User: What shape does this take?
Amino acid sequence: MVADHRETHMERGRARLQLIEQASTAVGAADDGPPEPALAPVVATGPDDGRLAHRATHRRDTPVPSRHEAEGLLVGFVADLLDAPDGASGRVVAGPEEAALAVLRGARDSRPGLRVATVVLPASAHPAYFAAAATLGLLPLVAPLDADGRASVGATTRLLREDTVLVVASAPSYTHGVVDPVAWLAAAAAVRGLPLHVDATGGGWAVAHAERAGRVGPGWGFAATGVTSVALSVGPEGGGAADLAVLLHRDSAGARAAAPTAVRRRGPLDLPATWSRPGGLLGDVVETLREIGHDGCAALVDDALAATAAFVAGVAALDGVRLVARPAATVVSLRTDATCDVLTLADALHRRGWTTHPVLPESGPPLLRVPVTAAVRPVVDGLLEALAEAVEEARERGPAQVDATLERLLDHLDPDDVRDHSAHLLLDAAATLDAVVPEHPGARAETNLLLAAARPGVREALLGVHLDRLVRPVRPVRPVRPVRTGQDPATTASTEARE
Assistant: This one.
C-alpha cells in the first residue's frame, strides 16, 4: 500500500523507504587509493515507493553481468532464501501470470493421454492460476476454505482424481493473506503421486524472510516433502519488482518440463546470444541484491512486518471494519460490516491518498486487500487515521447498491452474447455515477459494484471491456511523415488530414 498523490510523496519521501540505511552511506576509502563511490539513497517520488530495485543505489564501478548471469544470480539468491535442495533449478519469469502458465502447462503436458486434465486449487488462489487453467484447457477443481481462510485439507484430498495433474497451494493466499497447510496438502498429493506447486507470488517474499526469522512456521516450501515447485515474487508486493518472479523446481527435470523449449513447435529456433545485457528491471534487482544481500532484505522485511503489526492492531480498534484472517506476513485482508461497503471504503481511502485492492471472491462479499511494505512503517499512524476517516465516510453513505436502472439493464443482458455497445453504455453510466474528477482518477466504486452484481458470463464480458478502456492508447502527438522524393507536398498534407 502506498500513497497516491505526488505531494504526499514529496512531503514524506525521505521518511519512507531508504534501500537499507547502511547501504546508502559512503564506503570508507583506503589510505592509498581514491574513495569508492557512495550509494545514493532512494527518495520516494513515484507510486511504486517501497520498491526493491532502484538505479540510484547502484555502484558505478560494478561490472555488468550478462542476462544469463544476472538470471542465475537471482535464481540462486531465491534458492538460498528458500533453502532449496542442491539439485534445484529454475528461471526468472514475468510475474505470477507467466509462472502459472508455465507450471500448469508442464503439468498438463506430463499426461498427454488425458482428454481433459484437472488441477486442484483453493478458492483463495491467485487469479492468474484460474486464468491459466482456462487458457490451457484445464478443468479447475476448487477446494473450499476452512474457518481460518486456509485451504481445507480434507476437501482438497477428496477432489483428487485420476485425471488430476497438479495440486496448488498458496503462501500466502491471494484473498486472505494466510499460508495454506502446505505440508499436509503435499503429503496428500504425494500419496497419489501428484506434484504440488506453491504459489508465493502474492507476498511470499515477506513470508520467506519471516520464516527464517522464526515468525512463520516452517514447512511451506521445499522443506515439505512433496513440494515440487515454488513461484516467488522478488521484492515487496506493490514495489517496483512486483512483476518479477522466480519459478524454482526441486530438480532440473521439473524445470525443463516447464521451460518454453519443452513445447513442440515450428518456426525459427532462437539460440542464446553470446552475451546480452540484462533488462532494466532484472539488472536493477540483481545489483540491489548484490549490494544489500540477505541481511539487507531481511531488515526491510522486518520494517514491513512491524508496520503490518501496527496496522493490524489499529484495525482492531476501529468500528465498521475487521480482519478477514490473521495475516501470515504483510498482506492484510479486510472486510466491512453491514453499515458500509468495501468498494466505497476503497474509494474513500483513495481520496485520502492510499491505494488498496478490492477483490471479489468466488463466494461471499468483497474483500479489501492491503499489501504493506517497509515504506508504510514511518507513516502507519497516518494510514490508520485515513482508514478511520474513510470508514466514517463509507458509513455515512451506507451500504452500496447498484443503481436500479443499471440493475434492470444487467438483467436483460444475455451472458453468452454481451455486445460491446451495451457494455460501453453500462460502464459509461457507472463511470458517471463514480463522479470521476482529475484529482482522483481511480475512484471506481460504482463500476466495481456493477461488476460485482453482474452474472458470471456478463461479468467477464464487462470486465474485458473495462480493462480495455483503462489501457486505451494515449496519442497526444503523432509523428509527421516525411515527404517522399517526387511527391507533391500538397498531396501529402491532404492525405494526412484525411487520416
